[in-house]
Write a structure and sequence with these properties.
Low-confidence stretches: 1-13
Helix content: 10-25%
Mean pLDDT: 88
Largest sheet: 8 strands, antiparallel
Shape: globular
Strand content: 35-45%
Number of domains: 1
Radius of gyration: 16 Å
Length: 166
């Protein structure tokens, strides 16, 4: 599940250094767009992520999320989790024990949708644009907190890394 926009980045899958993988930094928006795209391209081309990283792919119940159980919990947003998902634009932690509105408040993420059935919040962490040789590159990194029906009672929190080429 790699967006086509990734192929416009100067990072190639072969350039990704597995030793540099800092999953918590990617989830907490402490990484840059090329760092995420390097991982995303590598994941798209890696036939057995589970064997290489020790991650176990799990059914997410959602066609837009690719879910993994990690071999050991990671610490993100002040909490531990052993489950992550990838959206089309970035990784998210699957968190138990905290409601999405509460986590969003703690992270200063404003709600765009907040109902008893659905929560969606987004905060722009970084945004830039660059024009070169008639091509416009716009990058955007956002911190997202949400709920999804497929993960009832759990909160998803993570980062979206996008690059738009015009």
């Amino acid at each position: 599940m790699v967006p086509l926009v990734l192929f416009a980045t100067p990072v190639a899958a072969g350039d990704f250094d597995l030793a540099s993988l800092d999953l918590a930094a990617l989830i907490e928006c402490r990484a840059n767009v090329p760092a995420y795209h390097g991982l995303a391209l590598w994941l798209a081309g890696e036939p057995d992520v589970g064997q290489t990283l020790g991650w176990k792919e799990a059914a997410s119940g959602n066609p837009f999320l690719r879910q993994y159980e990690l071999p050991a919990p990671i610490h993100v947003f002040g909490r531990d989790t052993g489950t992550i998902v990838f959206t089309a634009t970035g990784p998210m932690a699957v968190l138990d024990g905290i409601a999405a509105p509460d986590l969003a408040r703690q992270l200063d993420v404003p709600a765009t949708v907040s109902t008893p059935d659905k929560f969606l919040g987004e905060k722009v962490v970084a945004e830039s644009s660059e024009d070169a040789s008639g091509v416009s590159l716009a990058t955007r990194i956002t911190l997202n907190v949400s709920t999804v029906e497929s993960h009832g009672g759990r909160t998803l929190a993570g980062c979206s890394y996008t690059l738009d080429v015009k």
